[in-house]
Each structure stands twice: as structure tokens, then as C-alpha cells.
What does this fold into?
Amino acid sequence: MTGTARTRTEMESRFETGDQPSAVDFADLLASALLVLDDDATRIGVDGTSRALWDLYFSGLPETQDGRLSVQGLLNQLLTQLWDTIAAGYTLRGQWQTGVAYALPDAVLYLGTLYAVRTEHTSGTFAADLAAGRVEAVQMVTGPLTADTYLRRTLDGSRWDGVTPTELAAELAALAGGALLARAGGSLTGRVKFAASTEAVLALGAVSGAVVLDLSAASCFSFTATGNITISFVSPQAGAHNWLTLYVTNGGAYTITWPGAVNWHVATAPALQAAGLDVLGFMSADGGTLWRGVSLWRPT
It folds into this structure.
């Protein structure tokens, strides 16, 4: 529905106090850039929500002595609440203009629709700013007119828009005492308790020649020997305890050369099965400078 935008005085005199408007009359009045925020007749278009607002306010409204709705009281109540709700969430900058610096939490009007500023920018053309996501139409929802429910952003994953990495890092750093779990790399300083855990196995398949066990990719490996092999351990975590588990099939059928930094239990490398599985373990308490190796399992 559309209609003619009116000043506050014009709206208040639209009906005489005590007159009974129809839902259509009232909806048409609201749908036409109804909110008049000051004497300059700055307007916010409601567009499409007037009937929901009519239904919301139809019960429990001020009445005249003969039981009819008091339009004067209704308008005052509705306009005051809508204005307080919008003003609490945004800084209204009036009509959108090109070449103007906008920032959060500014709001602007364009062709009767209220738009929230999503990112700090200097306006170009409105179409370009809208397409680039610099501004976004404020969505209207039904229900009680509260700051939490009346105005909202569309749920498109943009809730972090405008938060710079510096600001986000500062917020995270404020969680002292090892309260943060390092998601990708980094160190966790607090104590960790697991109810259960599993570890991925990096299966190298059939191998021969140089075999690199990269501890930045996994700490548990498996392979089947198909020729002589020279093994190297790379990328252990410096200054930390590292461990490595290795499942070797048919390792005894060929010569396996181990890294020189491995110090074996009983001072010698175990004899592996020529046709079968061996499980070996390696530990380093100094970031990979010295590895201690041991046979963890083999058939009896």
C-alpha cells in the first residue's frame, strides 16, 4: 500500500479524536512514510508492516467513552514507541547523500526505506554501495516492539562486519589464564582434560627409498615396505615433547635406515618382521634433537 507522507500535525489531525477508522484507513496512513521524527518532516517508510502493526495494537488500545478506538492516543503511543526503538539502535543521518562519510551505527533513508550502515565508507552511488554490502535495509518483524525484536539485520553471516582483526584480537586477548583454545596452531597454556580422544593415521601406502615422516601433518604413520628405505623425521615442535607412532608392514624384508638422532631401547634397532606388522614408538623431549625409539608391538 502507498499513501501521502504527512507531518506529525497532519497525521494527528487525520481523524478527529473519537472517530472510528477502518484497518485499511489506518494501514494506508502508516504505509506512506509514516514516522515523522521532527519538524523538518524527516520520514521513515514502514512499507509492508502496517497491517501487522494494526493487528498488534488492535487490542488494549485507548478507547473513547462509547468504546471506539482513540486514534489520537493510538498514534501517540505507536509513534513514540517506534521512535524510541529506532533511536536506541542507530544514529539517524537523514536522507542518503553521495560523497558523505558513514560509519557504524549510522542509519540513512533512501526512497522511503531505512538502511543500516554495515561498514565504514564514503558513499558513492547508492546502487553501488548497496551491491557492495556497505548498507543494508533494516528488516521489520512482528511481535512486541522492543529493541531486541523490532529492528534486526538479515541473518546472512554478516554479524562480524565492521569488527577489524585488531579489535577482535584485543577481545580474545582479554580472556586471560589460558581460557582460549588454539584452533589452528598456537599454544594452549591451560590444562586440558579429555573424556576421550582419537588420532588420525597418515597411511603412506607401499613405499621404498626416502620416506619423510612430517610431524606437522601427523604423529601416527603407516606404510608397507616394498624396497630398501631411508627414514627421516621432519617438523617436530620446537621446545616441546614430541611423539611418533609408526606401523610398519614387511619391514624386515628390506634394509631400513633410521635417523641418526634415534637412540634405541637396548641400544640397537629391533629386527622387524619380513612378512608381518611391527609397531614402533618414538619420543623426543627436546624438540627432535634426540629421539628415543622402542618396539611397541610385534607378533610373539
Observations:
- Residues 3 and 32 are 4 Å apart (CA to CA).
- The chain is about 20% helix and 30% strand.
- Residues 202-297 form one domain.
- The chain has three domains: 8-88, 91-137, 202-297.
